[in-house]
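Protocol step 6 of 9: fold each sequence in the batch and record its structure tokens directly after the sequence line. For illustration, a two-sequence batch is reproduced in full.

Sequence one:
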Amino acid sequence: MFQKYLSRVDSSSLFRSSRNRLLVRCLTTTSRPKTAKGNDFNLLIIGGGPAGYAGAIRGWDYGQSVCLVDAPRVEGRVPGLGGVGIHYGALSSKTMWQLSRRNRMIRSAFTEAGLVYDEKWRDIVKLTLDAEAAKERQMRTQLTALTHANPFGVGGHIELVEARAKFINPHTVTLSLEQEGGAGQEEKVVTADHFLIATGSSPRDLAQYPADGVHILNSDHIASMADFPESMAIIGAGVIGCEYATIFSSFGRTKVHLVNQRRERLLPQEDEDMSLFLSRNFERAGVSIHNQCQLMSLDKVDKGVRVTLAYQQAGSKDYIPAEPFVVEKVLMSVGRVPNTKGVGLEQAGVAMDASGGISVDDHGRSTTQPHVFAAGDVTADIGLVNVAEMEGRHAVETMFCSEECPTPLSHDNVSTIMFLRPEVSCVGMNEQEARHKAIPHRVAVVGMDTVNRAIINRPQYVHDPSALLEGTGYVKMIVTDDEQARLLGMRAVGEDASALIQSAALLIGHKLSIRQLERTIQPHPATAEAVQECVRMLLGRSMTKPHIFPSCWLRRYDPKNPEDTQWVMAHAKHPQHKQGSQASVPTYMDDSG
């Protein structure tokens, strides 16, 4: 049904086939220059997603010959160039999130005027695929230009070939290419000095409930739906599950059930105040949250899928089945698994770790083959585009550094965004992690409702009172409880929260004090002023006094007396402001999140 839209993403198929024919001729000619070690390429990269693409560009910077091998696109199964960073994942889902947000605001204004705004699902899919195609074209344009050095003679060259690569020994792979006209496959043998494996990951299936793409979906199947489903159960309430719950509830066409298996609250890896804030917003948006439950069965029926859940009883370890409910679609969001099958890792002598990913050291180097590196989701570490890109670049820098090699990568100050309602951004420790590590610290929270930009933004929500939650939120900072006041972590919740986190990431990465931010003149009016006010509050000289505003507070934690959390300053009506002790927030260590 959506073939005419899907073809936008494949519009360069003729270009790809011509590139492949060119590469085949290049590989079969005896005049092709060899590397100093007698191989075809200095670097061969398997996977054209964020890590592979970033690694290829960095290899060009070093003047190396790079072969970037990416599996041909297969709709609903193999994403193609750009990987899940573009197709089925980050870019596509966040485009849908932005479209759902726009839809909700337009729909609210139309309702106020007595009109009906009816946006079709096929239009959402078209716009999403257009965004994917635009980014893929950008990548192809650059790879085409980097087939040779720049006009000043700087740079190496990159050959892009869309084929399946498989190791036959530690320095050799076979490339399986589709022949023109569907005349079968042609295999070519290629050798390289170094390898970067960046094959990404795929949605995890539950063995008893495999995704069929019709009734039971995973994230790869979203764009293949014919219309908005009337109802949907999302199995798994991690970040991806919560983002899709936000998207479909915001469009206002789908009743969403968010199934949070065996957990008492959403996002247990984050502090309880954030979890409660987001849960309330989900409930206001009409999402039904099923906490502390187990999935008992999924049964296909005439109108969709019958979902049976069992809930844990208070004070008991037993789960009691509840009344089933029927939904049109089930979206499985139970994690992702590294793509390690079919690559020939055993023939290459590349070991895997207990998590199912490739075993690497702090530089991304294989623990068993020093000339082979891996980056991104295939290492089963942190499934983020920005992390994959950094790991891909770092691996190539380690391969070809001529002087002092880069220091090992640190993931202590990774900035993340959760596209919920409202937006959430995080960096560094949260409060419960600081307590788990027994670090004396102070915490300050500044509500966005005290910031001028949030007040300016309020009129756009006047047509829909429930949408006022878009204009709410807060900034929370955790610092060491000493004279240095070193920043440990920060959380921002609210509109444009992702724009607030960069300065905090810089301070955490360099172990700097928040005093560095106090005298920085922030733009006005801007949500960034909430960050500065949070810093001032921690230093005892804020313009917004926390004993006056309920959305602002300041407290101290001493691990020597963990049951006595001291409220340095808080509004008298603050829900957590009470005399005496306060129990510690549970840790999330050993929790998969």
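Sequence two, same batch, same settings:
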Amino acid sequence: MTKKVWLLALCVLLTGCPKLQAQPTMEITWTNFVAGGVRVFIYAIHNTSFPSPTNNMAYVSLPVGIDAGLFYAWPNLSPFDWTILYGGGTTYFYNTNTPIAPGGTLEIEVRTQSVLTNSGYIMAQAQGPATFTPVKVVAPTGPYRHPKLTNLTLSNATLTLTAQDLQFPFSYTLEHSTLVSGWTEVLTFWSLTNNAQTVSTPAPTNGTAHFYRLRSP
């Protein structure tokens, strides 16, 4: 018997050797409905892993983001312990203070302007840091309409534009540039509706070509 096999046999006889643990697992159920043109999803994420502190769920990513008109994503457990990062097609949740232990369940409510859906994967990571087996779910999808500027008018040294296809309650930034300068912030405003809003700013005083754009969140 080689030394390696002998050590393994001794380890089994002593019964004090750490057991190999399987990849942490989760089960997910969800409900969804449309109310007032808004798509609402509620995901219940169950940590079904082997009981161990290293299997505490500290990171979750959802396959839905700003591209789908996301304007609300909120966890039900210790919500202020979670750091939430919004991406174009993904929303990330981090929590190292009060992670979800094996046997626990985290519910995340998502609301988007897009009523279209597609399949995607919810992914999670433990404090171990082992990776949970991803779970395929149905989620809101984009692309959602992007804001735009129309109806430019100039009167009494004031430039007026119409910002369209806004998403309540996001903020937007009107930016300006010329042929020889980069983009600079002109003003920031909050959308009051999901439709259109008029914005005004002092008109440029020189004869150079001027450009305006609306930057969304």
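Proceed to step 7 once all outputs are recorded. Observation for sequence two: The helical segments are 3-14.
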